[in-house]
Amino acid sequence: MSKEHRSFWRRHRGLKWMMVALLVVLITVAVAVSVVLHRAEPMLRAYIVSELEQHFHARVELDSFHISLASGLRAEGRGLRIWPPAEVDGVTVPPAEPGKPLLSLDEFRFRAPLHYAPGKPIHVSVLQLKGLTVDIPPKPKFLHAKEELKAGAGPSKMQQALIHLAVESIVCTDVHLLLESSHPEKPPLEFAIASLKLTDIQAGGIMKFQADLTNARPIGTVLTKGMFGPWTVEDPGESPISGTYDFEHANLGDFQGIVGILSSTGKYEGPLRNLVVDGVTDTPDFALTHFGTPMPLHTRFHAIVDATNGDTWLQPVEATLGQSHFTAQGKIVGVRETDPSGTAPPHKGHDISLMVDVPGARMEDFLRLTSKSGTPLLTGSLTLKTSLDIPPGKEPVHERIKLKGSFSLDDAQFTNPKIQDRIAELSLRGQGRPKDAKNKSDDTQVLSTMQSDFTMVHGIVTLPDLKYTVPGADIEMNGSYRVENGGLDFTGWAKLQATVSQMVGGWKGLLLKPADRLFKKDGAGTKVPIRIDGTRQDPHFTVDFDRLKTTSPERPDQKQ
Prior knowledge:
With 560 residues, the chain is an alpha+beta fold. Helix content is 20%, strand content 47%. The chain contains 12 helices and 28 strands. Strand 11 (207-215) and strand 12 form a beta hairpin.
C-alpha cells in the first residue's frame, strides 16, 4: 500500500470501522429477512390453508406458496384445491364427481404494506385470482348439518393466528362455474365468467359483486351486479344472492329450430336453488329456422329459477308476437340426451312444457311464423287455449312441437283469392243469391267464423270437429293440415239455408225444384258432402258426389 493510502486510512480510521459495521448490519438484516421469510412462508401458507379448512369444513390443498418483502409484502400461490365436506351429521357427502374438488384455483397473488401490529390484521387491498373453477354439487341428501357447521365449534383459528389478513376486494379472471344436477340425465349448468369483482367483503361472508360472463345457451354477454352471501357451507345451493342483469346480443340460433337476437334486462333475488326472477325480453327478428319469416317478439316474465341446474318455472310469461298478446306458464327443464345408436356422446337439451292462453290475438301473426313467403293462410281474431310440449331433439321445432287444445276464429278470411272466392260464392248461393254469386258483387269479401279442438304432432295439425260458418252456410269438417308443405286433407258436410233450386236460380232452378227434397236434411235447405284437398297455394274445393250417392234418401241404411 502506498504512503498516501496509509495516510488516508490513518486519518479516516473511524469511517473504516463505520463501513465495516454497516456491512455487518446489512448481512445480519439479510440473514434475518431470509430467516423470517423462510419461517413466514410456511406459517402464512398454513394460515391460509387453515382458514379455508375452517370456513369450508373440508380438505384444502395448496401446491406452492411464496412471499417477498420487496416493496411491501408480496405473496403468490399456485394449485389451490378445496374439496366438498366429506361428512355432515354422519352422512357421507359425495363430490360432484369422484376425486373432483369443489373449488380449484390455478394461481393467486396479493400485495400488502408492511405495517404490522400484533393483533391487528394486515390489509390486502386487492386479492387477484386466475383460473378459478367452482363445481357446486347437487343438494346433499341430508336434512340437518352438524352444529359446528351452523354455529362454528369454538373460536375461529383466524382469531388465534399470529398473522391476520383483511381482504378489501377480490378480482377474478377466467372463472368457470359448474352447477351439478342431482338427476343423472341432466347435464351440469355451466357459466364462463370473463371477469368477477368482489368488494365490500364483510366478516360474515356477505359481499358485493360485479361480473361479466358469457351465457352458455343462448350465447350472449351478461353484465350483472348485486350482493352475494354468506356462502352456505352445508348446501351451497342455499347461498343467498340478489342483483340486476343486462343480457345483450343473445343468439337464439344456438337452439335447434329458432333464430333471432335476444336482449333482456331484469332483477333476481333468493337462494341459488330458488331464485325469483323478473324481467323483460325483446327479440325483433324471432323466426323458425325452417320457414325464416321474422316476427317481433316481446315478453315480460316472472319466473322461479333453480340456478343450480337451470330449471325454470314460468309464472307466467306475458308475450306480444307482432300485434298479438298471449300468456304462457309452465316449466323448462334441462335434460341430457343420448344417441340411441351409442355412436355420439350425450348432448344437452331442454324439455319445454307450457300452458298457453291466447285471449284475443290475430291469427295472421302466428301463421306468418310457419310461412316461408310471409303470407299467412288465414286472417282473423283468434282465441286459443292449448298445452305446448317441445321435447329435446335435433329435428326442427315445428316437427318436435306438440299441441293439444281448442280455438275459435272470428272475422276470418283466407288470403288465397281462390279459396276466399269459393267461400264467398258458397255463402251467397247458400243465402239464395245466385245472381250476386255469379256477378261477384261487393259481398265477395264475406267474413266467416271457425272453431275446433286440435292437436299437432310431427308437424301435422289435426282438426277432428271443425265448424266453419259463413252467412247462409254451416260447414262441419274433419281432417289435417301439414305445416311443412301446406297440404290440405279435409272432408265434411255443408249445410245451406237455400234449397238446390234457390242456389241455382233462373230457369235451371225451376227444373231442379223436384230435386230439392233429395238434399233437404237435418233442417237445412241443402246438405251436401264436400272435400278440400291440395295445398295452401293450390287448394281444391269440391262436392263429393260419390259420398252423395251413398247417403241419398234411396239408401236409408247408409249413415248420413
